[in-house]
Specification:
Elements (H helix, E strand, L loop, with lengths): L9 E5 L2 H8 L3 H6 L14 H13 L4 H4 L1 E5 L5 E8 L8 E8 L8 H13 L7 E4 L6 H9 L10
Parallel strand pairs: 4-5
Antiparallel strand pairs: 1-2, 2-3, 3-4
Helix pairs in contact: 1-3
């Protein structure tokens, strides 16, 4: 499967295992040197558990890496990371992928999340084993709830 994913304004760039490990280890200088876009100064503060989870999957299933975590990179001069997106793992036995995403505070309310989610769905649907998508969203996250409702998602349950 082709790993290139983009939308009108964004390139969704896969994060390599080495890049995620450098970030998690606090080596921002090495991490920045590995990529062609600018990482915001306060990132990955607050997403360390996401990095740990994705790194663990990537070590066991390296072929899943393109699904796991991508930088939402705004094309421009300079190119800058405006968020992150990815699936929580490979498709399950029922062909379901669960999406997760975050747009960084300075870039919210500009349609980047919707654009990135739609691009990821289009890309993932090229795999005949992918049959459906799921999004788990905090009840307090009204913008994300609106986004997925607007994409046709329906609430089928809750867990906390």
């Amino acid at each position: 499967m082709n790993i290139e994913v983009s939308s009108n304004r964004l390139d969704l760039v896969p994060m390599t295992l080495e890049f995620m490990e450098a970030l998690l280890g606090g080596d921002r200088e090495s991490a920045q040197a590995m990529i062609g876009y600018r990482i915001p100064a306060d990132w990955p503060h607050g997403v360390e558990s996401t990095l740990r989870f994705r790194i663990a999957i990537a070590r066991v299933q390296p072929e899943a890496l393109p699904l796991l975590l991508r930088a939402m990179v705004l094309r421009g001069d300079p190119e800058v990371m405006v968020g992150r997106i990815g699936f929580h793992g490979p498709p399950d036995d029922d062909g379901m992928l669960e999406i997760g995403y975050e747009v960084l505070p300075d870039y919210r309310r500009q349609g980047y999340a919707r654009e990135a989610v739609l691009a990821m769905f289009r890309w993932a649907q090229r795999d005949p084993g992918v049959l459906r998508f799921r999004a788990s969203i905090s009840p307090k996250n009204v913008p994300s709830r609106r986004l997925v409702t607007g994409l046709g998602f329906i609430q089928v349950g809750s867990q906390w």
